[in-house]
Amino acid sequence: MGFAATGEAWLPTIKDLFSRGSKSAGLEVAVFDNRGIGASSSPADKKAYTTNIMAGDALAVMDALGWSRAHIVGHSMGAMIACRLALQAPQRVASLTLISATGGGSEAIPTNCTAIAAGVRGAMKTDPLSRASTDLAFHFSKRLLAQKDPASGRTVKAELMDQYVELQKATGGQSRAGQDGHMNAVMTHSLSKQEYAQLRSAGFPILVIHGAEDILAAPRHAARLARRLGAPLVMIGHSAHFTPRDAAAEVTDELLATVEAVRRGATHADAVHPCPNPAAYERSACAAALCCCFA
């Protein structure tokens, strides 16, 4: 998962995935907390956090599970880690799906006015409730936040606010070492022209999924990433940065389509989901058992 997010953030997508009956039959899924967050350790030295090192962590999870190969799915910082994993061990990648992704470095710095304003407001707040409100504005679409939760009848925003505050009280939030480490991983991440070429020629299908309303990771960066990877781009119009929650059903559709394409023998050359006009986003100023590993 992405910067400062635990593996639990994948639950809406995973629940939807396993509600699809025979379409998800035979799938095994692994989610985990990256180093620096949740139940994983938080090394003190920020140099212990790079996307290359964290890709090694993900491969270690696959080793522990006895998985020789998996569909690799990453969100935000997790997508950067997924790219590094694919470069380290391409023979272990059945497909590569990158969600809400950028090329890292300066591309990871929001330039959207709404995001900057929310960040300034958040930096001035210290109580969990106010920080929660800022985080939600960063990560989720207004459409999702206004929806009613079918179980409680409350808005999704109210439910997420409570979850955020409860998590902060229970865990104390992400450690300073984890925050600094994740920032280091994101800001030092980049791929060379040669590495993009290696991914293009690796043979496995690559898919980029992104929310058109993302104010953290600009859609133009996702379009550029897809072009560099020679990959199809799926732009979801009503989604913001947290696409696995904002558009769980659509993400599940794309993942299952990719899994099925691989079952049929699809390779990188098979563009299953071409974006109608990725250049429009690139120019905009305003991403036996089959196994899935979610980073």
UniProtKB/TrEMBL annotation:
Domain named AB hydrolase-1: residues: 2-242
Origin superkingdom: Eukaryota
GO molecular function: catalytic activity
Transmembrane parts of this sequence: none
Protein known as: AB hydrolase-1 domain-containing protein
Origin species: Chlamydomonas incerta
